[in-house]
Design goal:
The structure holds two protein chains of two kinds. Chain A is mainly alpha-helical. Chain A contains 20 helices and no strands. By secondary structure, chain B is mainly alpha-helical. Chain B is built from seven helices and two strands; from the N terminus they run E-H-H-H-H-H-H-E-H. A two-stranded antiparallel ribbon of chain B has the order 1-2. In chain B, helix 5 packs antiparallel against helix 6. The chains are: A mainly alpha, B mainly alpha. At the A-B interface, helix 2, helix 3, helix 4, helix 7 and helix 12 of A face helix 2, helix 3, helix 4, helix 5 and helix 6 of B.
Chain lengths: 423, 208
């Protein structure tokens, strides 16, 4: 019964409008007091919550993304990809999707990816006659690639909670990311070919291609240097984030696309987002300590052990729970609340924690495009200035495709695990 | 509809202009509370400088290792400590600018009096927890200082340097929560704007 009381108390606190970070911290403190344990546990948790070099990658990847966003990098990327594939059937949709994939490799955030690519791709796709619901669904779903393809802020936070290698987690996200792009891309091409969805853009000349590619090349180079450096062992993911931020600044300044005011806003936004994320980390640390003292993760593991048949049952039930919670809770809170509770069961069932991290992030991606809290839906809705219903209608096929990919990852875990254990 | 949202209106939200507009509706005796807003803004500006310093020193570390062949032994510790400082220093401004993630599904559609009550409850909990954190962490930091505790890292930096920001940050947050709580009755009931709307507005403007 205790887990039910704790969940009820947390839900109640959250519904009062109390910020997630303080709902977790206050409830955690209350539980420690109720257990009659010394309050000295609070400073121990507060001091230890952020004292981790790995977490340093979060503010720096955010800084890099914000600099690139404000420097208009999305526009250059989209034009370059469009010049190569825009004349295919469904080519502009594919260009948007590939731009999302490339931008994901320099951004750890889905919302930034959706906003950056969506701003340039939505008007172009609309001009070429793509159905509004398809366009908006594609961009909202394409944006979610931002947290699966490395670098990924949720995967960094997961790595810290689960004490797993960030480099391996980043590698593990590549296979599912490519699979998602392929599935989305096939749907886009087939939808254009058989659904009479849209006209392709005229084939770009070689000079146009060269010019657009050269403009976008530094950004692609940034991704190559950063991710290549991590996998070659030249630097850690945290150092890669600093190199990325420095390169992003150098690129945008050299291209004269970033003003001093833009830079200041990028810095301010990065600090704000960092604080918001890390406050939840701090709150979750206290809450996590409290539920450990009450042996909640062990009780949850016991419930799964006695009432749920095997790993398949666990995966199905956890997926349903996460999809449901994702309707109401944003991604970072989901991750920080649920991972400590589920991890002992994951390990007990012999599931690979790297696989589980990537699977969890895929479910978070689905949460990002399901109403009412799907942040990407609102971003794309604002860019296109269309009713939310149009975006929601458009993401339905993409949610189904993501569920299909989730099922594939469960059936063939090697899609996730091959790269980190063979590279 | 249930949605995650941040509340706008009761705090002196974001821009100084709105702070001053709100301030003008306050009794003159309470205008001194703007000093608290000023502290929060200044702390957030210091945090902004810190994130840039972190990027510079970590990029320098890679440069030092591969170009100068002389890796440093201080960048990791200093970077992590600065990250702790920046997070806690920017907390009060995060409350002031209504930046914290919260679920307002129920309260957003509630009558004005309930919305005020919800905001009051939020500020009491945040203020109360912050005071508790200051009290508990101060004792622990003094102990670290007097006992000369050092971090178990290469640099062996004194522990209190990484503990102090937690006290400073929560002290600023407690002050901001108290200031907003005092101003709450003099302001219109908070109008809740979804977190998504707030964030996407800034993001789409940037992307354009």
């Amino acid at each position: 019964m205790i887990p039910i009381y704790i969940v009820s108390a947390l839900v109640l606190l959250l519904l009062t409008g109390l910020p997630v970070a303080f709902a977790l911290a206050a409830l955690g403190t209350g539980l420690i007091v109720l257990k009659g344990l010394p309050l000295a546990l609070i400073p121990t948790n507060l001091f230890g919550s952020l004292n981790d070099f790995v977490l340093l990658a979060v503010p720096l990847f955010l800084l890099m993304s914000n600099i690139l966003l404000k420097g208009g990098v999305g526009r250059d990327l989209f034009r370059a990809v469009q010049s190569w594939v825009g004349h295919w059937p469904g080519g502009i949709g594919v260009a948007a999707l590939l731009s999302c994939g490339i931008f994901s490799a320099i951004s750890g955030s889905s919302v930034t990816t959706a906003a950056t690519v969506g701003t340039v791709a939505v008007p172009e796709m609309t001009k070429r006659g793509y159905k509004p619901s398809f366009t908006l669904g594609l961009l909202a779903a394409g944006g979610t690639l931002g947290i699966l393809i490395p670098p990924s802020i949720p995967l960094i936070v997961y790595g810290v909670i689960a004490e797993e290698s960030i480099g391996k987690l980043f590698l593990a996200g590549v296979g599912p990311g490519i699979l998602l792009i392929t599935v989305f891309g096939l749907y886009t091409v087939l939808s254009a070919a058989f659904g009479g969805n849209a006209a392709a853009s005229p084939r770009a000349s070689w000079s146009e291609r060269t010019e657009a590619t050269l403009r976008a090349l530094p950004t692609v180079l940034l991704a190559v240097v950063m991710l290549g450096g991590i996998y070659a062992g030249a630097f850690t993911p945290t150092e890669a984030s600093a190199i990325g931020a420095a390169m992003a600044l150098a690129i945008t300044v050299a291209q004269r696309s970033l003003s001093w005011a833009d830079f200041l806003r990028a810095v301010k936004d990065s600090v704000q987002t960092t604080t918001v994320i890390f406050l939840i980390v701090v709150g979750a640390k206290i809450f996590g300590q409290a539920i450990t003292l009450y042996q909640i993760p062990q009780q949850v593991a016991h419930i799964f052990d006695t009432h749920v048949p095997g790993t398949v049952g666990f995966i199905v039930i956890v997926s349903l729970i996460l999809l449901f919670i994702g309707l109401f809770l944003e991604s970072m809170s989901m991750l920080l609340i649920m991972v400590p509770v589920l991890l002992p069961t994951v390990l007990g069932l012999g599931l690979d924690p790297i696989w589980f991290g990537v699977y969890f992030v895929l479910l978070i991606e689905i949460a990002l495009i399901t109403p009412p809290v799907g942040l990407n839906l609102f971003v794309i809705q604002a860019i296109a200035n269309k009713p939310l219903g149009v975006v929601v209608r458009g993401v339905v096929p993409f949610v189904l495709m993501m569920l299909f990919v989730a099922a594939l990852l469960s059936l063939f875990p090697q899609i996730v695990l091959w790269l980190p254990f063979h590279l | 509809m249930a949605h995650e949202a941040t509340h706008k209106g009761s705090g002196a939200h974001g821009a100084p202009a709105s702070a001053s507009a709100d301030g003008e509706r306050l009794p003159p005796s309470l205008r001194a509370l703007r000093i608290v807003d000023g502290i929060s803004v200044t702390a957030a500006r210091i945090a902004a400088v810190m994130i840039v310093i972190i990027a510079v020193i970590l990029a320098y570390e890679v440069l030092a290792r591969y170009v100068f062949r002389a890796p440093t032994r201080w960048t990791s510790d200093v970077g992590t400590t600065l990250m702790i400082w920046l997070t806690f220093l920017a907390m009060a401004q995060s409350l002031r600018s209504d930046g914290m993630i919260r679920i307002t599904a129920v309260v957003a559609n509630a009558p004005a009096s309930v919305r005020k009550l919800s905001q009051g409850f939020t500020l009491v909990v945040i203020g109360g927890f912050s005071l508790l954190a200051v009290w508990l962490c101060f004792g622990a930091m003094v102990e670290s200082f007097t006992m000369g505790r050092r971090q178990p890292t290469m640099l062996q930096m004194p522990e209190w340097i990484a503990e102090a920001p937690i006290i400073v940050g929560y002290a600023c947050l407690a002050l901001q929560a108290l200031a907003d709580l005092i101003r709450l009755p003099f302001r219109p009931a908070p109008a809740f704007v979804s977190h998504e709307e707030a964030e996407l507005h800034s993001m789409t403007e940037d992307a354009r």
